[in-house]
Amino acid sequence: MARVVVDVMLKPEILDPQGQAVQRALPRLGFTGISDVRQGKRFELDVEGPVDDAVLARVREMAETFLANTVIEDFTVRVEDGTPAGDARNGAPA
Amino acid sequence: MTTRIGVVTFPGSLDDTDALRAVRVAGGEPVALWHRETSLRQVDAVVLPGGFSYGDYLRCGAIARFSPVMETVVEQARAGLPVLGICNGFQVLCESHLLPGALTRNDHLHFVCRDQRLAVANAGTAWTRDYTEGQEITVPLKNGEGGYVADERTLDMLEAEGRVVLRYLGGNPNGSRRDIAGITNEAGNVVGLMPHPEHAVETLTGPTTDGLGFFTSALKTLVDAR
C-alpha cells in the first residue's frame, strides 16, 4: 500500500497566531534559539493500488478543492513509498 | 402573501433557532432547511446561521460547503437568491467562493464574545437597505476564527466597488484586515458578516434591536421584486 502525504501550510503572508503562541512558549520550556514557528496540517492518504500520475493528479485536485483553502494556504503532495504506517511518525526520513 | 426565509441547519449549527425567530419577529415566515436536502422548499431567501458546522473540522465551513443543501444554495445565489451568512455562515460563503477571502484565527487567539459597535458601510444590499450608510449599530459578536483576510488586490477591489458592508468600530476585535466585519458579492444579494444580528432583535435578550434591519431589509427587497 502506498501512501501519499499532503502538507498544508498557511501562506507566508498570512498571520499564524497559533504558530506564534507556540514560538513564545518555547523559551519558557527551555527550548531556545527558535526564531519563528509556523503551524500546518499533514494529511496521510493510503492509496489502493499503485500511485501513478493519474492518482497524483486526483490527489492534487483533492488538495486544491478541499484539503487546502488556496486563498490562505499552500500545499505540497509527495509519495511515501513502502513506508510502514508507524515509521514516519517516529522521525524516520520520508 | 408572506415571504418565506429559510434557515439551514447543519450538524453543529447553534444559532439557527435564533435566526428563525428573527425572521418571524421581522414579519417573515421562517422555514427550517436541513443540510442533507437539496430542496430549498421554495423559500425566497436563505440564512446560513452561526455555529460550528461539522465541528469546524478541517477548516470552519469547509465541509458544510459540500453538503447537499449548499449545492442548491450556491446555484441559486448565483442566480440572485438573497443569502445571508452569519459567522459560521460567512465562513461557509467564503469556502463556497460566493464571497472572496477567508476567515482565520483571531490574531490574539482568544474567543471573542461581546456587544460590538459597527458602522454600516453599504446600505444598498438586499440585507442592509433598511439602514443608512454610516449608521452605527451594536450587535453581539462571538467568534474564535473571525479574522477576515484577503490579498491586497481583493481588499482594494472590495473597497473600490463598495462591497464592504460592515466595519468594526471602537477597536478591531479579531485582526480583520481593514476592520472588515462584513462584505457582499458583486450583485449585492449575498452578504456575509461575523457579528450576529439575529441576537439583537428583541430588547429582552439582545443589547439592542439593531440587528432586525437585516431581516426587514430582505423582506422589503423580496416584496419589491414581486
**Which architecture of chain A would the CATH scheme give at its second level?**
2-Layer Sandwich
User: Level of helix content of chain B?
Assistant: 10-25%
Q: Give the amount of beta strand of chain A, in percent.
A: 25-35%
Using CB atoms under 8 Å apart, which protein chain pair has the greatest interface?
A-B, 12 and 20 residues
**Total of domains of chain A:** 1
Secondary-structure element order of chain A, N to C? EHEHE
Give the CATH architecture of chain B: 3-Layer(aba) Sandwich
CATH class label of chain A:
Alpha Beta
Structure class of chain B = alpha/beta
The third-level CATH topology of chain A is Mth169, Chain: A
Percent helix of chain A, as a range, is 25-40%
- Described by its quaternary structure, the protein is heterodimer
Q: Biggest sheet of chain A, in brief?
A: 3 strands, antiparallel
Order of helices and strands of chain B: EHEEHEHEEEEHEEEH
CATH class of chain B: Alpha Beta
**Global shape of chain A:** elongated
